């Protein structure tokens, strides 16, 4: 399929040393050649080469900007079309001027957000799952989330879905043969085969869904609340975590900003610390336990870090909170272990699970590794460093996997209750279709538009 030619600034808009204008489509090379003054004629240049020159307005002859042009002929390009990238070195104004000149060329128009990636998908260079990973790449907030998204963009997850689909299509083919040639009378054999193949597929779907929760956490960070009475060391802990911070802080559309959040990483674990304004409060006299805040934390947080002071006896408030948090994912941090013990540790151990107790001295930077290990066990069964970066993290993928799971479950069920094979076929076919939708087969235009509209301009 041949589309028109699109152009956009592909780097972040703002003051930067360099900006790239990307042009993709059948007229990309011709249009650029018309405005590019260089020793070489771009039309004759080889693919995957760089060329130095100037962009000039063909009408006025005015030289607009000194540039380096990259030429990539389709299909060996990101969009699988002819692609030209103009690397401009000046500031915002110069880049906009270049784009203006580019867009004045016949047959060119400004790209919509995500349109380059959409073309890569429509031209069959990537599947929908890979395209969606490009969005995640742009938004990822930790090294690990980035690596996970990159794996998905490379197609690691797509491969597993394709293999899964293969299992289901084999089953479907077998059933269809059976429907077409019923005189073969392989009914019993077929039932066993349906169960066997469905189980095989269900096993893999189960594995993929298990990674979903971990994937979500990696993408969004573990929503973490630090609570505890004044002076136990909450601010100090927060500051220490923030020092470790290697996460890039960005705005995620759709998240409320009324609680101040901070992204930090503890080893490979991304944490999203809630209500940091309240904890940062230096005037600890006004900092109360904040019943309301604890409430919110109790309900919304994925993880509660409840800090106690080793150098202090337990307070009635602590007991109340500990009781309330019994069923919540809570880690009890016994802070100030460098001081003498006044806290009744027997009581603490009676009130909460021993494996959730972490002894620390924030002052002496002791215990951070144990905290990391405890969180890792709690959320990743300690497997976070296994190196397997295949995670299902997209809600669309998760719901389609669940749908396929349901359909295959129904198929197995049906073999037990003597339901006619052509009805079982419907279940199996529906599983096959759900899996296909993940990769972008048989999805409607409106869904595709909706997915790509989440992109930023120039991607
Ligand atoms: P918050 O009220 O819970 O935020 O507590 P802060 O972080 O403001 O700490 C209260 C006081 O305890 C400060 O003077 C800290 O320096 C001190 N502190 C924090 N952590 C430790 C620790 O591990 N050992 C000791 N000895 N003092 C600490
Ligand atoms: Zn504080």
From TrEMBL:
Protein residues bound to Mg(2+): 235, 256
UniProt gene name: mnmE
Species, as recorded: Paenibacillus radicis
UniProt-listed GO biological process terms: tRNA methylation; tRNA wobble uridine modification
Family to which the UniProt record says this protein belongs: Belongs to the TRAFAC class TrmE-Era-EngA-EngB-Septin-like GTPase superfamily. TrmE GTPase family.
Gene Ontology cellular component terms for the protein in this record: cytosol
Keywords attached to this entry: Cytoplasm, GTP-binding, Hydrolase, Magnesium, Metal-binding, Nucleotide-binding, Potassium, tRNA processing
Details of cofactor binding: Binds 1 potassium ion per subunit.
Domain spans labelled TrmE-type G: 221-380
Annotated (6S)-5-formyl-5,6,7,8-tetrahydrofolate binding sites: 22, 85, 125, 459
Domain of life: Bacteria
Residues where GTP binds: 231-236, 250-256, 275-278
Cofactor field: K(+)
EC number of the protein: 3.6.-.-
UniProt protein name: tRNA modification GTPase MnmE
Record-level Gene Ontology MF annotations: GTP binding; GTPase activity; identical protein binding; metal ion binding
């Amino acid at each position: 399929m041949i589309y028109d030619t699109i152009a956009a600034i592909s780097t972040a808009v703002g003051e930067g040393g360099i900006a790239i204008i990307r042009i993709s489509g059948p007229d990309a090379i011709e249009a650029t050649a018309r405005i590019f003054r260089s020793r070489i004629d771009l039309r004759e240049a080889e693919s995957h080469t760089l060329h130095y020159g100037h962009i000039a307005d063909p009408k006025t002859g005015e030289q607009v900007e000194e540039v380096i042009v990259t030429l990539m002929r389709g299909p060996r390009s990101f969009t699988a079309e002819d692609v030209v990238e103009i690397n401009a070195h000046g500031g915002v104004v110069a880049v906009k001027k270049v784009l203006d000149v580019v867009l004045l060329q016949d047959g060119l128009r400004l790209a919509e957000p995500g349109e380059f990636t959409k073309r890569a998908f429509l031209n069959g260079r990537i599947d929908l799952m890979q395209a969606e990973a490009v969005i995640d790449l742009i938004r990822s907030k930790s090294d690990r989330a980035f690596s996970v998204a990159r794996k998905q963009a490379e197609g690691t997850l797509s491969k597993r879905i394709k293999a899964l689909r293969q299992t289901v299509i084999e089953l479907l083919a077998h059933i269809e043969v059976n429907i077409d040639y019923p005189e073969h009378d392989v009914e019993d054999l077929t039932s066993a085969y349906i169960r066997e193949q469905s189980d095989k597929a269900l096993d893999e779907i189960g594995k993929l869904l298990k990674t979903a929760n971990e994937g979500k956490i990696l993408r969004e960070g573990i929503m973490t609340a630090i609570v505890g009475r004044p002076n136990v060391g909450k601010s100090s802990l927060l500051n220490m975590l923030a020092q470790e911070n290697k996460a890039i802080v960005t705005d995620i559309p759709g998240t409320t900003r009324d609680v101040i959040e901070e992204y930090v990483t503890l080893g490979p674990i991304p944490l999203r610390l809630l209500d940091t304004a309240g904890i940062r409060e230096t005037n600890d006299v006004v900092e109360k336990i904040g019943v309301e805040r604890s409430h919110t934390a109790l309900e919304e947080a994925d993880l509660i870090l409840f800090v106690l002071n080793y150098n202090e006896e337990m307070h009635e408030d602590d007991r109340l909170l500990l009781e309330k948090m019994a069923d919540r994912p809570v880690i009890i941090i016994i802070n100030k272990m460098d001081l003498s013990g006044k806290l009744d540790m027997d009581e603490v151990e009676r009130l909460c699970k021993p494996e959730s107790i972490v002894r620390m001295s924030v002052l002496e930077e002791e215990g951070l590794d144990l905290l990391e290990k405890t969180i890792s066990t709690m959320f990743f069964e300690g497997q976070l460093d296994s190196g397997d970066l295949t995670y299902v993290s997209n809600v669309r993928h998760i719901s389609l996997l669940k749908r396929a799971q349901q359909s295959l479950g129904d198929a197995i069920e049906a073999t037990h209750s003597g339901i006619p094979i052509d009805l079982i076929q419907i279940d199996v076919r529906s599983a096959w279709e759900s899996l296909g939708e993940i990769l972008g087969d048989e999805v409607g235009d409106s869904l595709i538009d909706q997915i790509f509209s989440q992109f930023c301009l120039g991607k």
